[in-house]
Each structure stands twice: as C-alpha cells, then as structure tokens.
Amino acid sequence: MRLLFMGTGTSHGVPMIGCSCPVCTSKDPRNKRTRSSLLITYQDKNILIDTATELRLQALSFNVAHVDAVLYTHFHADHVFGFDDLRRFNHLQGAAIPVYANAHTIAELKECFAYVFRDGPKGGGKPQIIPRLITSPFDLFGLSIQPIKVYHGEMPILGYRLANVAYVTDCSSISPSEQELLHDLDILILGALRYRPHPTHFNLEQALQLIEEVKPRRAWLTHLAHAFDHAQVEKELPPHVGLAYDGLAIEVPDAT
Ligand SMILES: [Zn+2]
Ligand SMILES: [Zn+2]
To answer: Residues 80, 177: one domain?
Structure first.
C-alpha cells in the first residue's frame, strides 16, 4: 500500500489569503499546504479520501491519472469542493466512480451539487458517480475498510481504517469504543489544527494525547494551520510522530 498526502492544510489553506505571517511567507515548500486529502494506492487501485478544493492542482502535481473510489470524511467545503473534477477521471476511465460516505454527506452532496444528480445529458459536462452509503465495515478492492465515527464539534463524521492504516481528520472527540478501532496501527494519520484549542478540531496537544493512548507505530499529523512552521514543529514532536506535508509519500508493507 502506498499513501500520498495530496494536501495537508486546514480550510483556508496555507498561505492564507492576505496573511503576511512568517509561515504564510515562508520559502519552505513544506509550509505550502493545499486542503487536506489522502490518496491510497492498493494493488494499482487509487482510493481518494475527500475531494479537496484543489483536487485538480493536486492531481497535476502528483501525476494522479486515475481515481477508482472516493471515501468522504464529511461535508465541509474544504473536503468536497473538488467534487466536479472527478469528471476528468470518468473520462479517462470510461466508468462511473463509487463514492462512499455517511447519509449526511450524501444528502449534502446531492443538494450542493444538484446538477450532478439531475437527469439530463451525460457527456463530459458533469461527474458520473455512484453514491454508496456506509453503514458498516466493507471491502474495497480486497482491502478491508472500517469506518470510524468521530466527532467534529457536535457533528458525527467518519474516519477510516484501511488494514493497518487509519486516517482521522477534523476530529475533536472520539468515544472509547471507536478509539478501540485505532489500536494496533502501523500508521495513524490524525488532524492537528494548531497549538491553541479549537471547538471542532484537536489541537497539537490533544492529537499527541490520542497518539499516546492508541500507540500506532508511526503517526503523521495533517489538516495544519499557519500556526505551524514545519521545521520548528518537527523539532517539538516525539520521534515516532511526523508533520505531513503536501506530496509526502509513504510505502506501507501489505497487511490486510
Ligand atoms: Zn477540514
Ligand atoms: Zn471540517
């Protein structure tokens, strides 16, 4: 399995429009963050978690030429607004793309992107997707996918465990029973917004606390705001925790 961080930024992206802070004006490419998304390649199938606002630019940067399925965490603009770009992959693949999500996300997709779901001429004008409601663990291309319910403020959203890798972003709390699902991981990818607390996201301290509790072999932090200077934060992290950056690719030995 191969993991590729397509984007690692919070909803504004980094740099933020109109901000002249040291991180937003930094020359370090690791401080340039598009909206968060992860690409998992498993036996030549590409599974994309979220269609971030910059999906087109991310796909061009990292030579992503096919997307075989999409898993959505939740319906917030930064996680879905690349949705329309899926039509380019439809064209390349000659097939509709299955899109997995909870009921709330599917309902919001249908409302926000009503034109996609309306009857009418197909052609190249709009994405062809197959909504798939997630109600329990499922198998995708031979990979076992375990949805993990976490809270983003008051809102229940989904994280995912794919074999021994988990991706949990935009989380501010998790129940003990769902936290159990994060044990024995090779890799945990976890959202950590900034140093200061936030009502709907873990800050750095809370993310490190969860990592301490579930003890993955390696953890990577994502969904990062401009409070984090890459080089500085890396020095502050425990040795088995890293700060992800756009374009970071990780090979994971196969284990299903
Ligand atoms: Zn977000
Ligand atoms: Zn969100």
So the answer is: no
Angle at 38 between CA 35 and CA 40, to 5 degrees: 165
**SS3 at position 180:** helix
Instruction: Identify which ligand lies nearest to the alpha carbon of 191.
Output: 1
Residue range 2-34, pLDDT digits in tens: 999 999 999 999 999 999 999 999 999 999 999
Predicted TM-score of the model (pTM): 0.96
Collect residues with CB below 5 Å from ion ligand 1. Answer: 78, 170
- Distance (Å, rounded) from C-alpha 133 to C-alpha 144? 16
What token pair was written down for 112?
């926000």
Do 73 and 169 touch, CB atoms closer than 8 A?
yes
* Residue 69 CA to ligand 2 centre (angstroms): 21
Structural domain boundaries, residue 118:
1-15+31-135
- The reply to whether 192 and 227 lie within a common domain is yes
How far is Cα of residue 133 from the mean position of the Cα atoms in its chain?
18
Task: List pLDDT tens digits, range 58-92.
Answer: 999 999 999 999 999 999 999 999 999 999 999 99
Q: Which ligand is nearest to the CA of 223?
A: 1
Task: Quote the ligand 1 centre to 8 CA distance (angstroms).
Answer: 10
Count up the domains in the chain and report the number.
Answer: 2
